[in-house]
Specification:
This protein has about 160 residues and is an alpha+beta fold. About 40% of the residues lie in helices and about 15% in strands. It has helices at about 45-55, 75-85, 100-115, 120-135, 140-150, and strands at about 15-25, 30-40, 60-65, 85-90. α3 crosses α5.
Length: about 160
């Protein structure tokens, strides 16, 4: 009888975490993709910093379509939302990535990177930035993320 093979590796827990938002102008004329990368897991601190930057770059009211992630329910984040009435939150039901256009941005990024073999974390970050920049600069690609979602108004 054979034995189950034992694989040894020197896996490092390097990571790139991302927070992003796909924005639609009030008259639905223009889309933009805002994002930040971090080299550690995201916390409420990073969410608040991202929201603060979004408030700085986007004029008028901002409707956040959020999933039920625990990070969105952190006290720090909730307190920030209460202090900034321009930010309005609508929650997606349960686990519903098919409703979230931002998920399709990451689907496109993963697809673009699927045949890559980065040498290290820095190489992965470079490839990721190039891929995301291509998406950011293309209204056609951004609209395809909106239309791929199952949002009722996206049809």
């Amino acid at each position: 009888m054979g034995q189950t093979p034992l694989l040894r590796h020197s896996y490092k827990r390097d990571r790139i975490s991302a927070i992003s938002a796909l924005t639609v102008s009030p008259k639905r004329q223009h889309l933009a993709l805002y994002l930040r990368f971090h080299d550690q897991n995201l916390t409420g601190v990073e969410v608040v910093a991202f929201l603060r930057a979004l408030l700085h770059h986007v004029r008028g009211p901002i409707l956040l379509l959020w999933d039920g992630s625990p990070i969105h329910r952190r006290k720090l984040v909730q307190d920030f939302l209460r202090r900034h009435p321009r930010l309005h939150v609508e929650r997606f039901p349960g686990y519903a990535p098919e409703l979230n256009p931002d998920e399709f941005v990451w689907t496109k990024a993963k697809h673009a990177l699927s045949n890559s073999a980065p040498k290290d974390r820095a190489d992965l970050e470079r490839l990721l930035h190039r891929c995301i920049r291509r998406i950011q600069e293309s209204q056609r690609l951004l609209w395809s993320c909106i239309h791929a979602s199952a949002l009722p108004w996206a049809a």
